């Protein structure tokens, strides 16, 4: 007779849970039944997985006692499917899911549909200024005598929680985006259909400990009010296990680790209960280790069962992807009574050690700069500020693609300011080896100016939020520090947070501020912020200018210290991307009216200071440095060149100065990495996956082996950002004029670099002498090539002028943008002679990041008969026709991943580019490759040939007009 699943679990558990402390588990084959049955947490369910019903209370006359009754009529309510995190999301998401406001992110459709908000604060727009009901039915595997615990992991806003007609908790308790609460609903839940209803009150981030969009883009008129993490129900017998985790105590040399397993066990009965608690640690390879205890828990009491430490040698250590592998250990736990399983859990963790310290005390940073180390290795953190979807809709595939883009750029990781993510985000980051900086948000209730207005309730929510955050993130090796934003915390805010982190065993460095501020407990942050608007590329190389009267070192953004957020402001996407989200009128304004408040920038309708709603400052710099444009395409071309130049310089400068022991550059966070909607402000890639000039400039700067030309001293730096030592390296530096004449050619050979190594002063190319206006300026190029074993592994081309950018520091310091007394003059680039290029492409099946299954290689050659440089050549994969032409409409594969792009070639030079993508993105069309250059025509070549052959040689490339 075949046993039922529950009986099989009981039998296996009874065999495992015998008195003792530690044992090595049997071979995997003997463990399979238990592992199969406990692969999902026993008795734990996500509520609302089958969908929610959502509606404003203005349209519902009944109260929670009726709305939360099973069978309540919801005709006319909005049916909402949960996202990939299992949550129903925001009120606007509910409307959009039900057909309200198609193409909500196109042009200013969101404003037309839902209204307009110009500041962070309370919800003022109907229908969002009223509370909304979120309602779902559930049928748990529950019978009389069992325990049921409902967890609400936070509300964006506040909420009254009802189950089956009864109020479980009011908004006085359920408040805060990250303040989780668990309620005993054993007396309310019944076999069969049950109902959970949450009355969600409008989010006011100026008073509530929630989240908001600051000035990063447009503010959704509902203030993101809703549910971003799904409620769960844990059904158990008398004993309930939860909060299972491992506390690490790693040897300094990582030769061993003592792992302490902890499990909270709650006795739900009116009498003392004895049960068996077991935990299994399964390494990435090798035999599992089982620890177990028999525990007696007093009536109606929670106790933490702490196991004796398990010492593990021969560790599999987790590393960031650029330094090593990402092995993960698995923790499973089980709580049983009399051989019957009550609850179980399963999670992963990585063994690694993160430390931080202050280094390089200097005049700008008298306490030093923040230096992070992973597993004892110092490194220069290079990342970007991550933003979730504007409506908090979580998508696993989108996360995977963004992680692929981040790694493709060579960035170390991301910073999350006030937007802690669903568990899958951290799981993916763990597997990808991507580092995550966590932290509280600025400019709202999380950042009180003083403690005079704070109440006991405020401190309780702060504590509960920190505890929940600690619980959710402590096991993720990707999360390597957490901190506050612009201001340091007030004293009790700090103590409540640190207390909660300790209670949750959240073991990461905690940083007092993202600015150069301190607390007596945490010390100085060693970090700084700004600028946020346009500055010249050479600005980033400055190491001496700061406002001595501003101890926070804000908007002193040169490459010294740890820059927690900074960039040169607006990012102009490719023309393909622009056409997807800007209306024809907005497109015209983009190149014709720099002072126009672009809806896809933000809500600040001005320029200068902290107003970022126009592209005015960027446009002025382009006009001064590169000259005027005469069309949307010519504007986009120039803006992409300028964005590339600036993003590259920002990242390279921090590597270039990282070895300065007296004033080191230790890390930089580009502000921002992305946006949760199409954007013109602060991004390295757009929400459609578009990779414009800023993306490839950042990618170039962060290549694993890379040569840098220093804007400050004209010397060449070589870095190795990979995991192993690199030997047999050489660096060649050539200086060329716009006519292609070689002015200088130097090579340094026999170079070696260890992992994360940076070597300065490798070469110093001889460049034309500096000039000052009104003397004529000359434009020239510096080409750097890194070779290993005779093969080019890095190629980096700079376009420079003898007339330099000169920052007026007196007018610049204290401001988020630079004021210049002289602009660099690169306008001769517009007079480059026309260049001719050719391309040959082939396609074959092949694996790439993010599930890509197709690989196309394209070799681009400058075929000019005269010495004409092919400047800023960009390749794109497009949907094409069988005869090698572009298909009509939007044909770009925006999600394709390139190994390089926006390249520059001289006559006779070739470069082979590789791109990966999903064949399904072609939608049945043939792949073609387009190549555009600043001073070339556009060519289109077929790239078909699933077996690796070149495109049909009989089909000539499609050529469009050259730039006039």
Structural class: alpha+beta
Instruction: Report the sheet with the most strands, covering strand number, pairing sense and barrel closure.
Output: 8 strands, parallel
What fraction strand? 25-35%
Strand line-up of the largest beta sheet: 30-29-28-27-26-35-34-33
- What general outline do the C-alpha atoms trace? globular
- Calculate Rg over CA atoms: 29 Å
Keywords, separated by commas or semicolons:
single chain, 964 residues, alpha+beta, seven-stranded antiparallel sheet, 53 strands, 32% strand, disordered C terminus
Structural commentary:
It contains 15 helices and 53 strands. By secondary structure, the protein is an alpha+beta fold. Helix 8 packs parallel to helix 9 and helix 13 runs parallel beside helix 14. The longest helix has 25 residues. The radius of gyration is 29 Å and the shape is globular.
């Amino acid at each position: 007779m075949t046993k039922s699943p529950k009986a099989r679990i009981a039998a296996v558990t009874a065999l495992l849970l015998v008195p003792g402390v530690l044992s090595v588990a049997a071979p995997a084959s003997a463990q399979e039944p238990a592992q199969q049955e406990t692969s999902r947490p026993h008795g734990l369910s996500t509520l609302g997985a089958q969908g929610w019903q959502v509606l404003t209370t203005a349209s519902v006359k009944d109260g929670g006692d009726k709305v939360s009754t099973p069978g309540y009529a919801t005709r006319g309510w909005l049916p909402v499917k949960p996202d990939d995190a299992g949550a129903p999301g925001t009120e606007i998401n509910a409307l959009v899911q039900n057909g309200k406001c198609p193409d909500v992110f196109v042009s200013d459709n969101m404003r037309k549909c839902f209204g307009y908000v110009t500041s962070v604060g309370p919800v003022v727009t109907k229908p969002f200024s009223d509370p909304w009901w979120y309602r779902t039915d559930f049928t748990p595997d529950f019978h009389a005598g069992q325990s049921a615990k409902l967890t609400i992991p936070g509300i964006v806003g506040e909420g009254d929680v009802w189950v089956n007609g009864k109020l479980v908790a009011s908004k006085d308790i359920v408040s805060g985006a990250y303040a989780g609460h668990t309620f005993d609903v054993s007396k309310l839940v019944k076999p069969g259909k049950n109902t959970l209803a949450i009355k969600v009150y409008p989010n006011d981030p100026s008073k509530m400990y929630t989240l908001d969009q600051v000035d990063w883009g447009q503010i959704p008129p509902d203030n993101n009010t809703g549910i971003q993490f799904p409620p769960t129900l844990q059904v158990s017998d008398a004993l309930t296990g939860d909060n299972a985790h491992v506390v690490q105590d790693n040897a300094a040399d990582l030769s061993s680790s003592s792992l302490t397993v902890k499990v909270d066990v709650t006795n739900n009965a009116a009498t003392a209960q004895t049960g068996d608690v077991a935990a299994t640690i399964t390494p990435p390879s090798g035999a599992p280790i089982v620890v177990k205890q028999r525990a007696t828990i007093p009536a109606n009491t929670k106790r933490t069962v702490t196991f004796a430490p398990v010492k593990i040698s021969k560790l599999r250590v987790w590393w960031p992807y650029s330094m090593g592998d990402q092995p993960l250990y698995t923790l499973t736990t089980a709580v049983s009574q009399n051989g019957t399983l009550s609850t179980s859990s399963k999670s992963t963790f990585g063994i690694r050690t993160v430390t931080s310290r202050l280094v390089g005390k200097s005049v700008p940073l008298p306490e030093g700069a923040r230096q992070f180390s992973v597993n004892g290795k110092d490194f220069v953190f290079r990342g970007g500020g991550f933003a979730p979807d504007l409506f908090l809709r979580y998508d696993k595939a989108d996360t995977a693609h963004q992680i692929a883009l981040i790694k493709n750029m060579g960035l170390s990781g991301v910073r999350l300011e006030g937007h802690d993510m669903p568990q899958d985000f951290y799981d993916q980051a763990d597997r990808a080896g991507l580092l995550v900086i966590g932290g509280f948000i600025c400019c709202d209730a999380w950042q009180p100016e003083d403690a005079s207005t704070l109440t006991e309730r405020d401190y309780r929510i702060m504590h509960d939020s920190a505890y929940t955050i600690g619980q959710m993130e402590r096991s993720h090796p990707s999360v390597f520090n957490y901190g506050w934003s612009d201001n340091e915390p007030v004293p009790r805010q700090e103590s409540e947070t640190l207390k909660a982190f300790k209670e949750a065993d959240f073991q990461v460095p905690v940083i007092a501020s993202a600015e150069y501020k301190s607390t007596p407990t945490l010390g100085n942050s060693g970090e700084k912020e700004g600028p946020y608007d346009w500055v010249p590329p050479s600005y980033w190389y400055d190491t001496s200018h700061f406002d001595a009267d501003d101890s926070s070192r804000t908007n002193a953004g040169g490459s010294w210290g740890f820059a927690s957020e900074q960039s040169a402001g607006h990012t102009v996407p490719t023309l393909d991307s622009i056409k997807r989200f800007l209306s024809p009128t907005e497109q015209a304004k983009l190149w014709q009216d720099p002072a126009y408040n672009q809806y896809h920038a933000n809500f600040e309708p001005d320029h200068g200071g902290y107003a970022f709603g126009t592209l005015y400052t960027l446009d002025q710099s382009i006009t001064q440095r590169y000259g005027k444009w005469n069309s949307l395409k010519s504007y986009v071309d120039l803006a992409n060149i300028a964005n590339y130049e600036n993003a590259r310089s920002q990242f390279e400068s921090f590597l270039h100065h990282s070895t300065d022991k007296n004033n080191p550059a230790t890390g930089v966070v580009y502000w921002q990495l992305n946006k949760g909607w199409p954007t013109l402000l602060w991004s390295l890639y757009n929400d459609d996956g578009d990779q414009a000039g800023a993306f490839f400039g950042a990618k170039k700067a962060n290549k694993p082996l890379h040569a840098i030309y220093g804007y400050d001293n004209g010397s060449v730096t070589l870095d190795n950002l990979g995991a192993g030592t690199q030997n047999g390296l050489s660096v060649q530096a050539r200086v060329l004029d716009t006519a292609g004449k070689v002015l200088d050619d130097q090579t340094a050979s026999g170079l070696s670099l260890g992992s994360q190594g940076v070597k300065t002063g490798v070469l110093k190319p001889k460049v034309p002498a500096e000039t000052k206006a009104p003397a004529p300026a000359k434009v020239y190029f510096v080409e750097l090539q890194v070779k290993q074993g005779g093969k080019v592994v890095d190629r980096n081309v700079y376009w420079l002028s003898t007339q330099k950018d000169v920052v007026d520091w007196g007018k610049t310091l204290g401001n988020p943008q630079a004021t210049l007394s002289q602009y660099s003059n690169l306008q001769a680039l517009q007079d480059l002679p026309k260049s001719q290029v050719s391309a040959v492409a082939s396609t074959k099946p092949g694996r790439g990041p993010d599930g890509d299954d197709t690989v196309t290689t394209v070799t681009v050659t400058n075929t000019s008969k005269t010495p004409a440089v092919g400047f800023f050549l960009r390749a794109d994969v497009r949907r094409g026709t069988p005869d090698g032409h572009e298909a009509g409409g939007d044909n770009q594969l925006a999600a394709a991943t390139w190994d390089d792009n926006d390249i520059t070639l001289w006559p006779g030079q070739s470069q082979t580019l590789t791109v990966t993508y999903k064949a399904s993105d072609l939608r049945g069309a043939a792949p073609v490759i387009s190549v555009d250059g600043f001073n070339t025509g556009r060519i289109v070549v077929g790239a078909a040939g699933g077996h690796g052959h070149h495109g049909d040689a009989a089909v000539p490339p499609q050529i469009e007009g050259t730039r006039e």
